[in-house]
Amino acid sequence: MKFPRIYSLKEIAELIGTTFVGSANFPISGCNEIHVVEPGDIVFVDHPKYYDKALDSKASVVLINKTVKCPQGKALLISKDPFADFNKLTKHFNPFTISSTSISKSSSIDNSSIIQPNVFIGNNVVIGKNCVIHPNVTIYDNCHIGNNVTIHAGSILGADAFYYKKRKEGYDKLLSGGSVIIEDNVDIGALCTIDRGVSGNTTIKKGTKIDNQVQIGHDTIIGERCLIASQTGIAGCVIVEDEVTMWGQVGTNSGITIGKGAVILGQTGVTKSVKGGKTYFGTPIDESRKKLKEMAQIKQLIKKEKK
Amino acid sequence: MKFPRIYSLKEIAELIGTTFVGSANFPISGCNEIHVVEPGDIVFVDHPKYYDKALDSKASVVLINKTVKCPQGKALLISKDPFADFNKLTKHFNPFTISSTSISKSSSIDNSSIIQPNVFIGNNVVIGKNCVIHPNVTIYDNCHIGNNVTIHAGSILGADAFYYKKRKEGYDKLLSGGSVIIEDNVDIGALCTIDRGVSGNTTIKKGTKIDNQVQIGHDTIIGERCLIASQTGIAGCVIVEDEVTMWGQVGTNSGITIGKGAVILGQTGVTKSVKGGKTYFGTPIDESRKKLKEMAQIKQLIKKEKK
Amino acid sequence: MKFPRIYSLKEIAELIGTTFVGSANFPISGCNEIHVVEPGDIVFVDHPKYYDKALDSKASVVLINKTVKCPQGKALLISKDPFADFNKLTKHFNPFTISSTSISKSSSIDNSSIIQPNVFIGNNVVIGKNCVIHPNVTIYDNCHIGNNVTIHAGSILGADAFYYKKRKEGYDKLLSGGSVIIEDNVDIGALCTIDRGVSGNTTIKKGTKIDNQVQIGHDTIIGERCLIASQTGIAGCVIVEDEVTMWGQVGTNSGITIGKGAVILGQTGVTKSVKGGKTYFGTPIDESRKKLKEMAQIKQLIKKEKK
Lengths: 307, 307, 307
What we know:
Three copies of one chain form a homotrimer.
Chain A (H helix, E strand, L loop, with lengths): L1 E7 H8 L2 E3 L5 E5 L9 E5 L5 H5 L5 E4 L10 E4 L3 H12 L14 E2 L4 E2 L4 E2 L4 E2 L4 E2 L4 E2 L4 E2 L4 E2 L4 E2 L6 E4 L2 E4 L5 E4 L4 E2 L4 E2 L6 E4 L4 E2 L4 E2 L4 E2 L4 E2 L4 E2 L4 E2 L4 E2 L4 E2 L4 E2 L4 E2 L4 E2 L8 E3 L4 E2 H19 L1
Parallel strand pairs in A: 3-4, 4-5, 5-6, 7-10, 8-11, 9-12, 10-13, 11-14, 12-15, 13-18, 14-19, 15-20, 18-21, 19-22, 20-23, 21-24, 22-25, 23-26, 24-27, 25-28, 27-30, 28-31, 29-32, 31-33
Antiparallel strand pairs in A: 1-3, 2-6, 16-17, 33-34
């Protein structure tokens, strides 16, 4: 999430009510989660296990719940509750806005695109050329849709990330300030859900085709020319490289990478990152050749045993 | 399903066209299915296998297709077709009502709650304080939603139970007269379905967070502070106790109980009731530690065999 | 897809810009895919592997990318790109039409049927007697719905087939010109997707009951009195015979047949055609009795090994 202008460290510290370590004028351009953070960004960390990762990341400012040594060229925001204070940033820079009309006047939709009846288009949505948005689709605020994109009925772009912190009194939600980017020539089936990023974007790259009832989690990046069959669920913060094929009802863990050109057979549970160019099957995942051989060997063992 | 007033046994017998055993003035306050039935209620039974269970239940009146001995302090409604006659009760006391507007004037929505465009809210729906109902959500008649509840786009609360009786000429539907109760601080993702109860209620207790594309069947009760990830399907008449975590694409059988604090890993098929406080995996379900060990042992057996 | 009148071979060749082999007046009544093609129809083929299948099919005209010997009594359309030229036929005879209203004036809805608010009904849709169409349902152009049909909220009938051809520059879509046929006494749950056929129809036969979040692919035929539980995904070109029961989260491959009266247990992956009258379980699919026995035997082998 980029801020609308450069803020100073002091300004941000005052905004969210923290102290700071570093020059009061230290420039800050945005905030992001650790896996997509860029120079100029704030990143937050509230668990000692991840302190080093955050301090060593590309982030220029670390929002942290301990007074640690400030890495050179960086700044710190010292907070009792970095999670809650990060939410303050999202609330300030990208607050939820009520829509009074089905299609927001602040959206920008090219004249060549077709919006069928009963569609909801939120604030600041951009839709390119020659798109068809079928009935009952919901596009939340700030989503960007390229050219030649088809979205079938009932699909939902930009709902909140499923991201909670367990506290004594229950789950606390990390607010979503990111968005959804759909590149050119993408087809999205009916009743899909593509969540927006927490502070970055969920991106579907050009030429990818998605079947019905597919779920794509927050901050996930789907490469170019992928084929994703029905009822597949891709968790948050996943990287699917180009030309990956996923058959029906596949599920994935969060935070993994699926290599270029991989083929994931139906109902597979992608429990870890897998290399490209191969075909996979099963839960836990394995190369399909190996998995099927193993299954045959088990049958033989049983047969032998019975004799 | 509670009736609007106390009815007499004779009144109900006339209403649904059955004979009765017991005092004509025997008071009846409602009807329910066997697993949630309460004193004052009618329960129905049409299979000899379940006669004793129904007669011994908390129900005060048993709608039954055989003239059996009436248990003390109870009454009987003798019917050729208890299933069809139970439907008559639902049809009479909670008939389907057409909605002429997207938001029924008989609904009660607190001023502090936000209803985004294209939402449908049925008759007698109650929505508490500080809720956000996102676009294209459908809330059927009689659903009750607490405070601080977020429902993301396209979710459906209160569709009919999937409950049929096989007859020679095809499937006969048990009408749904129950409702959906969403307690305080619940978040529901996009494109979820939460069916209403057949005669009781489907309940999501306070602080529970539900991801996208989750299905929750009729009369199921989800405890407090549960976390249910995307594309999980929970069948009808299930009890999920407090603080249960279910990862993505989990499925369950109907009528089971998942104990407090259990963690169900992704794609698991919960084929039977499981105790709380443990982590489970696989179909059929087992403790994940055991299951993963078993999988490793199988691989070793095959390896050994090949030598 | 039937054409509105009989066309001559020459007319079609000019329409799609191909040469032809056969009499210029050779009559053509429609076009279809190979598995549902009928006499009078055009079928297309672009891979040598399938040439014979297409030439030997019931099709009267073969749209093909090689000048082969024309079978007796048939005709050929010779094309550099049969896939693209088949799309021209669909575009010409069944082009996508924008809807300016939520309920098209060209639709035919019986007075006895109830259409709840926020429903979209496309052009030339037919809805029979005593149907209930719940809120936020989308029915695309040309769908036919019989009598006594209930469609719960948010379901989508008639979205495009997920059918692409891989080209060097990315995936090319086969346009869908078929439709969806829902016969009498069918119930469809909330948030289901039933795609239309590519050139034939996707059909749900009478008395079948479908739970929530079920996906049914293009050109698939579901028999009479089937029961399909929640989150099941049936691929394209599948034949499900009468009285089949499929429990939750079942998935199927495309192009297979499930025999009459088969029962498919939850989460099963129907990886191949299966005979009727039996119960199946697991991925890859097997008879459940065998599968469960095998699982028990594996456990015993491990136990024995440990001694």
